[in-house]
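Work Package 3 (structural annotation) set out to generate three-dimensional models for the target panel prioritized at the project kickoff. During this period the team completed the workflow that converts sequence records into discrete structure tokens, so that structures can be stored uniformly alongside our sequence database. As a representative example, we reproduce one entry of 514 residues exactly as it appears in the project archive.
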Amino acid sequence: MKKIAGFARAWYNEQSRLGHMNTEQAERRANDLANASSGGDLIEMSSNPMMLTSIAIIHQKDIGLPRERVRLYQLIVDVLISRWQKHKTGEESFAPSQALTAFLKDDNRLRAALEILAYEAHRANYTAGNTNGDADLSRGHALTLLESSDYLGSAELASEFLDYVDQRSGLLVGKGGELEKPTSYSFPHRTIQEYLAGCYLVGKRNRGREFFKHAAEGDFWSLPALMGAEELFYNHKSTRDTLLDLTYHLCPETQPQTEQAERALLWSGQFACLFGNEGIESDTDNPSGGKEFLKRLIPRTVNLLENFHLTPRERAEAGNTLAKLGDPRVGIALSIVEGQPDGLNLLLCEIPAGKFLMGSKEKEEGAYEDEYPQFEYNIPNNYFMSRYPITNAQFDLFVKDPQGYVNDAWWTKTGLEWRGDRKEHARYSGAFALLNHPVVGVTWYEAAAFCKWATDQMRKSDGGMQIYDSSTHSIREAKSLKSEIQNLKSKIRLPTEAEWERAARRKRSALSVG
């Protein structure tokens, strides 16, 4: 982070010295570049000096960076292939031949060559079992690919092209052998390789079969697949119908029965998020598309969360998809009956009364000193806990209710002093802000006030309560419990430490907090 900020200051200080902007502008632009390069997908890429310099060139030229990553990656490739050489010395020694010059001016042929190299390099990663690092593409393999009539058409021109992009553009990094004739190549950053590989995938005529084939290879192709879809959506808007057809293809009318089919379904949902509900629903030409597609996609995506075929990260991504397209799960959705107004709906699990071992044994792995010693504790009555953490959508009901967050009645005296003139809780961006994700940044005072407000919602019949039976995986109405709340015999509150630990342990001796 400090190195990135230092680079940004040095870059724009030099622009100020050269008279391209005044000191105040340079400072403002340096801060913007540092902030943009230190977040999201760019922080790792910015650790590479070549990539950071390319990002700075784009930032200076375009007065900022594009929000969509594929637009930025496209610009980075353009910088590396067509502008990087302007910042090098010894330009005459690397002057391309007339044939290569003509090839380099043909944007379509040039991109096609880069994309096939990236795809084959990425495939080499998978074949070598090197899923986290970089696998090199041998010069021989690269020459065989490029000398095809589909690309450069001759071994001589292919060899010159490899030397050019290695020695002048920096888009391929030569390794091994002599300086001017490396034995292998890799891309300067894995993300650029994945971006170009994804572009190759979506450019194929049989893209549907190719995507499904790679879905069988674990999550290794997930990022290229998604960036390929983003490439069609953001950089080639005229081909959005092509992307929509691919989205439908990966979620056919038949139920997914394999991990491969489930991963293809996951990708389909991620692609659908680019269009959004309105974009999908506006497609009325395809009988199995549009609304019919969403009717099968969303419940199947819920199943991805509850099955264990995909990786934990992929299942989390399925949750992100539901956040954008609509999460219908009871206890998360605000309305459990379509067409009804939004309201607080809780899905509860019944925790039986009884004795259990509380605390941890001495020297138990992962335990803290204040958990010693372990002892037997008795909870005298059954109680209920929400199956899911309170979500952003649910807490927002409390915040947006005129009789919610700002109503003094729900706050303790100390809580009121803490709240002061606040109108809402602290908010975070990114995944932390997704509607079906657990609310974060909430203090104990705010959580306690929410519980009092939620109790009032149930007493006024403005909220819904249901009970989940883990033994049968069934859901039933919590009529008697809601009646107790309405008759002031029960209330919603935060759990005690013992109640939380009892629920977290279930019948286990060790805590389960995942």
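The longest strand covers residues 345-351.
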